[in-house]
C-alpha cells in the first residue's frame, strides 16, 4: 500500500485533529518561552535602571515586539480552543438546527475575515523599514499577522468540518450561506460603483456609519461570533463606506499590529502572570485567617470574613474570578458546616469578589489608561480605585450584617491570645507586602507601573518558592494560561482599534455627543444616563470588550463637560464590574454558583439588596468626585 493510499484512508476529521494538536503544541512552546523571556527581560530592565543606573533601550524595544507576538500568536491558538469571548445568549435559547445555521454564518464570515488578515499580512512583508534600536525588519515582524490569519482560517475550517459531519443538512446550509454572502458582497460593490449612492452616503456619512457600525456589530454579537472578530468586521464594514477594498485590506494587518505597539501594554500580561502565580502560591488560606481577625466580631462573621478575604485576595490577583474561586472554595465548606444560608453565601462571595477589579493593582485600569492615551495615568487610577473598591466591599458587609442580625446568626465572642494573633498576621504579611511594594514603588517614583508588574512577577514567584507550593510543571501551566488570558485581552484591544479607527474616521463620537447633549447639556444628567447605559451594557457584555468599545465613545463627551479622566475611569469600572455578577453573562456569578452548587435563580433574590446598596455607592462615587480623587491629589498624581 502506498503512502498516498494511506493518506486517502485517513478520515478528514482525524487529519484535522492532528493538525489542531500540532499547531496547539507548537504555539504553546512559543508562548511559554516568550513569556518566560519577557519576565526575565523586565526584571533585567529594572536591574539596569536602578542598580547599574543605565536603562536598557534594547530590552524595551525587544519587550514591545515580544508582547505583540505573544498577543497575536496567543490569539491565533485561542481560535483553535474557543477561548475568545462571545455572547451565546441567542445560541443558548434556540433549537439545535437554528443554532447550526448561526454557527455556519459565523464560520463563513470568519473564514472570509481570516483571508483578509492573511492577505494583509502578506502585503505587510513588503515593509522594508527597520526598528530604531535593534534594526529588525518590520516586514518580518509583521509576518505574525500571516500566522494569525492562517491559524484562524484552519480553526474555522476544522469547526466547519465538525458542523457538517454532525448533520448532512449543514453542508447545504454552508453552500447557501456562502452564496448569500457572495451576493451581498457583489451587490455592495455595485452600490459603491453607483455615483448617486455614493453621493448620498457621503452627504450622510456620520449617521450611516453610526448605524452600519452598531447594527453590524450587534448582529455578529447576537449570533455568537467572537466579540473581537465582530469588532473588527464591523469596523471594516464601516471603513468600507469611505475606502476602497484594496486600501482597506492592505491596512488591516498593519492596524492590528500597530495597535499593540505600545510599551504600556506590558503591564497587562505581567500582572496577570503575577496574579496566577499568587493563586497557586497558597496565600488564600493565610489571607482568610487574617480576614477572620477583622470580621469575627461582626454579625455574619463568616460572610464578613469572605468579603474581607475577597478584597485582599482580589487586590493581589486582580481577578474577580480568581478571588471568587480561591476564597469561595475555602469558605463554602465552612459555611455549610455552620448552617449558613447558602444562596446568600453565594451572593456574598460573588458580589464581594469584584472589589479586586477596583483595588489595585488591577489590569482593568491599565487598559483604560492606555485607551485614553495616558490622560489618566495608571498610578492615579490605582490610587483612585481604593475608596470605590472599599465602598463595594462595605456595601456587601452592610447587607450581610443586617441579614445576619435579622436571622440571629451568632457572633464570635471568644478572645484570641496575642501569640495566635501575631502568628496569623505574620502568615499574611509576606503576601500583603506585594501591594506595599508595587503601589509604594509606583507612588514613590521608584519604578514605573510596567516595571512594577515585573517586580510583582518576581516577588510572587519567590514567595511561592518559599512556600514550596509551585513546581516546574505547574509553573509551565501558569505561564501558558497567563499567555492565553493576556492574548484574549490583547486581541480584543487590537480588534477594537479597527473599530475605534472607523469611529474616528466617521466622527461617530461627535454624533453620539450631539445625541446626548440634545437631551441635556448638564454633566450630572449625562453621567446619570451613562451610568444607566453602562449598567445595562454590563448585564450583556464582559468587562474588557465593554471598556474597549465604550471608552472611545464616552470619554470625549464627558471630558468636554469637565469630568476628570481619572474620575470617569473609576465610574466606568465600578459600573461594569457589577455586570460580571449579573446574568446572562455574569461569569463571576456562574463561578460562585458552581462552587456552592446553588442555582442562579435562588441567588438572584439575595443579590438584589446588595446591588441596591452598591448602586447607592455608585451614585456617591459619581457625584462626589473627591471620593475617587482625594488620594491621587494627596500624592500629587492628579
Distance between the termini: 76 Å
Q: What structural class do you assign from the helix and strand content?
A: mainly alpha
Biggest sheet features: none
Low-confidence stretches: 1-10
Q: Kindly state the mean pLDDT as a whole number? A: 86
Shape: globular
The helix fraction, in percent, is over 70%
Number of DSSP E strands? 0
Radius of gyration: 26 Å
Q: State which percent range the strand residues make up.
A: under 5%
SSE topology string:
HHHHHHHHHHHHHHHHHHHHHHHHHHHHH
Helix count? 29
Describe this structure in words.
This protein is mostly helical and 638 residues long. 79% of the residues lie in helices and 0% in strands. It has helices at residues 3-9, 12-50, 57-81, 96-124, 138-141, 144-166, 169-193, 195-203, 205-222, 227-239, 245-259, 267-279, 283-295, 301-317, 320-337, 342-353, 363-371, 378-384, 386-406, 418-443, 449-467, 472-505, 508-519, 523-540, 543-560, 565-579, 587-596, 600-623, 626-634. The longest helix has 39 residues, at 12-50.
